[in-house]
């Protein structure tokens, strides 16, 4: 079993709880309250800005030029294309980009981005790689699973677009790249160091679950 598979297996409960979460199920069956989706999109916009910071720190710490390039490209892709998906959804809801940028982070958003940036600043590159994996792999897995389900006819277009974004083969390749990055980073590390990578991965898996819950309850 690869190290990333081991991480995934040790957090399996948290991952299954995400797949079963009413927010995720509500996107799939189209019954999610649009107010919850709006809250989530606003908060995810804030999240993505901080996630781009994490990737920029990753670029600075990358062990080789190719990895550095990938981190820089990814930060660019998030600040461009992925945030554009959110801006498009927000536009349809009558929220302009400036209002999105003024959104204050909810406690769950702050907890997640603080954990990411803490890991990136106080940990090393291996921990940073482990911290970004649940985000990449989790959404790729959710997108892939939801895309395989038959789409209900009355599902809002924004939910279908969301699923299509994360089910895209590009995201599947991105998740595979992140797993390989973590496996390479863990190679030859002593057990105590691998334990820190595990703590970063498990912590982020828990915060991903809390993020769905924040969307579902519209908590601030
Ligand atoms: C809370 C939260 N977790 C994960 C993602 C998904 N995601 C964020 S950045 C990125 C990588 C490249 O775009 C991916 C897959 C999200 N949007 N919001």
Automatic annotation (TrEMBL):
The Thiaminase-2/PQQC domain is annotated at 11-217
Q: Does the keyword Transmembrane apply?
A: no
Q: Which reaction does it catalyse?
A: thiamine + H2O = 5-(2-hydroxyethyl)-4-methylthiazole + 4-amino-5-hydroxymethyl-2-methylpyrimidine + H(+); 4-amino-5-aminomethyl-2-methylpyrimidine + H2O = 4-amino-5-hydroxymethyl-2-methylpyrimidine + NH4(+)
Gene3D superfamilies tied to this protein: Heme oxygenase-like
Offer an example of a GO molecular function term for this protein: thiaminase activity
Tell me its EC number(s), please. Answer: 3.5.99.2
Q: Which CDD domains match?
A: TenA_C_BhTenA-like
Q: Name one GO cellular component term.
A: cytosol
Which residues act catalytically here?
208
Q: Which InterPro entries match?
A: Haem_Oase-like_multi-hlx, TenA_E, Thiaminase-2/PQQC, Thiaminase_II, Thiamine_Salvage_TenA
Recorded metabolic or biological pathway in which this protein acts: Cofactor biosynthesis; thiamine diphosphate biosynthesis
What keywords does the record list, in alphabetical order?
Hydrolase, Thiamine biosynthesis
What is the purpose of this protein?
A: Catalyzes an amino-pyrimidine hydrolysis reaction at the C5' of the pyrimidine moiety of thiamine compounds, a reaction that is part of a thiamine salvage pathway. Thus, catalyzes the conversion of 4-amino-5-aminomethyl-2-methylpyrimidine to 4-amino-5-hydroxymethyl-2-methylpyrimidine (HMP).
By sequence similarity, the record places it as follows:
Belongs to the TenA family.
Q: What name has this protein been given in UniProt?
A: Aminopyrimidine aminohydrolase
**Species name:** Paraconexibacter algicola
